[in-house]
Write a structure and sequence with these properties.
The chain has about 280 residues and is mostly beta strands. Helix content is about 10%, strand content about 50%. The two termini are about 25 Å apart.
Length: about 280
């Protein structure tokens, strides 16, 4: 309870400051298919839907996943987020196949400041997984809070770096997971771009999890994007490999006037990929 109250105070304080900053956006910028969350927030009164499917293999276990992220621009530089993830585990000689809803994640992303020379564009992402909005197997879990800072440096019109640092709790272990991501994005053409990424987590009760992934995103229009990506585990505790495809669209909830252009690079040159449930 004290931890949740602390996060709420942080959100209220930073949201008041961030809402006074100017808001700008170009073509659709997404938080998939990589693990590195983009610092770009949704334009006020716009809705964005990011959906994907993934297959993950770890030893002899295969898991299929479906992830949907809803993002809504609340005020300038502040968005609300809701993520719902399903996983399907095929039957084996010990258990029948089953589908489960993971804890629904509610959160917000707040743009803090724009890029200035070597200072990266920076945003704060605060979220919490709610086990009472999940399958029965998660009902005894605690709330799963998390905080992440997202950064972006545009090195040129073609190349950019995206990187995150954060902390999360899984609802079972009282010791947190310390998260990191680093991605190198490249604009391959006006509508096609790719990325290479390292990401992972550290917990004092477990061996480190380190992963590598790569992917491509194609802008179908200013408001629609499709993607494909794949990841491999670099340590024994990480999944062996995964592959994912997805689509993202955005739309106005009602007329908000003319969209203001920004100098941000395409998302994959901005940020980078994630594992099966990230976003996801």
């Amino acid at each position: 309870m004290n931890r949740s109250f602390f996060f709420i105070l942080i959100f209220l304080f930073i949201a008041i400051i961030a809402s006074a900053q100017p808001d700008a956006i170009d073509e659709i910028d997404t938080d998939r298919p990589d693990q590195t969350e983009s610092p770009v927030t949704i334009l006020r009164k716009w809705m964005q839907v990011e959906h994907g499917f993934a297959l993950e293999k770890d030893n002899q276990l295969s898991v299929y996943g479906s992830s949907t992220l809803l993002r809504y621009g609340l005020v300038k530089n502040v968005e609300l987020r809701l993520e719902a993830d399903f996983i399907y585990t095929p039957s084996n000689k010990f258990f029948p196949g089953h589908t489960e809803l993971l804890p629904i994640i509610l959160g917000t992303k707040i743009s803090l400041w724009e890029e200035r020379k070597w200072i990266p564009k920076t945003s704060l992402l605060v979220h919490a997984g709610l086990p009472f909005l999940a399958a029965k197997s998660f009902k005894n879990f605690d709330v799963q809070p998390g905080v992440r800072f997202t950064f972006q440096n545009n090195l040129s019109q073609v190349v950019s770096w995206g990187y995150n640092a954060g902390i999360e709790w899984d609802g079972e272990n009282s010791n947190p997971y310390y998260l990191y991501t680093f991605s190198n994005g490249i604009n391959l053409s006006k509508s096609l771009y790719g990325f290479l990424e390292l990401f992972g987590s550290l917990n004092k009760d477990e061996l480190p999890r380190h992963n590598f992934d790569a992917g491509l995103s194609l802008s179908v229009s200013d408001d629609c994007k499709v993607d494909i990506s794949s990841a491999i585990g670099l340590t024994k505790t990480a999944p062996d490999w995964s592959i994912a495809i997805g689509m993202s669209v955005r739309f106005k909830t009602y007329s908000t006037g003319k969209v203001k252009k920004s100098s941000n690079l395409n998302n994959s040159a901005n940020k980078l990929y994630g594992n099966m449930t990230a976003g996801n």
